[in-house]
């Protein structure tokens, strides 16, 4: 059992939104490792960060990704920081990995509406987003087999781009 697509990229790239649409188009199940972590912890991500700290969250995330890669057959979306784990990057080898890219301005705009992302909840989300992109862009590219720049695309157009790239587009 292996995911048809693993979706990753920075917060606000549309991993969850596009992942759901992509799974619908392909008629396969969708799974998001953030949801698995929330279910396992029994509390929201912001509470995990506050109560247990980021390292505890990252350990749970590594486990959730490993489990998803082993047991999920559809579209698997990861959290934006999952690629910071070298172990996770190794585990992604051989999978079809879609990197949804988004620039700072659009990424901040898309995530600004929500307080659910503790890493971006500080006083200067633009600076935080930029340093996050600087650190992670090479890691996303290291593991990705497909990259789609999403800034000027609707979620449906992103799905078209992903399926067009892989030649697995379904009928209309
Ligand atoms: N291509 C897009 N164009 C416009 N808004 C988008 C796009 N993709 C996602 N969004 C919006 O951005 C926000 C974050 O999307 P989400 O799927 O949660 O991103 P991620 O899981 O990558 O952090 C949501 O409000 C979503 O509706
Ligand atoms: O970028 C990150 O480090 C994080 C991104 C979030 O997921 P999304 O990328 O789906 O927002 C979530 O896993 C957590 O808040 C940490
Ligand atoms: Mg998400």
TrEMBL record:
One of its GO terms (biological process) is amino acid biosynthetic process. PROSITE patterns: SHIKIMATE_KINASE. Pathway: Metabolic intermediate biosynthesis; chorismate biosynthesis; chorismate from D-erythrose 4-phosphate and phosphoenolpyruvate: step 5/7. Its cofactor is Mg(2+). Pfam families: SKI. It comes from the Bacteria. GO terms for molecular function: ATP binding; magnesium ion binding; shikimate kinase activity. ATP binds at residues 12-17, 117. Monomer. Catalyzes the specific phosphorylation of the 3-hydroxyl group of shikimic acid using ATP as a cosubstrate. This is Shikimate kinase. It comes from Saccharothrix carnea.
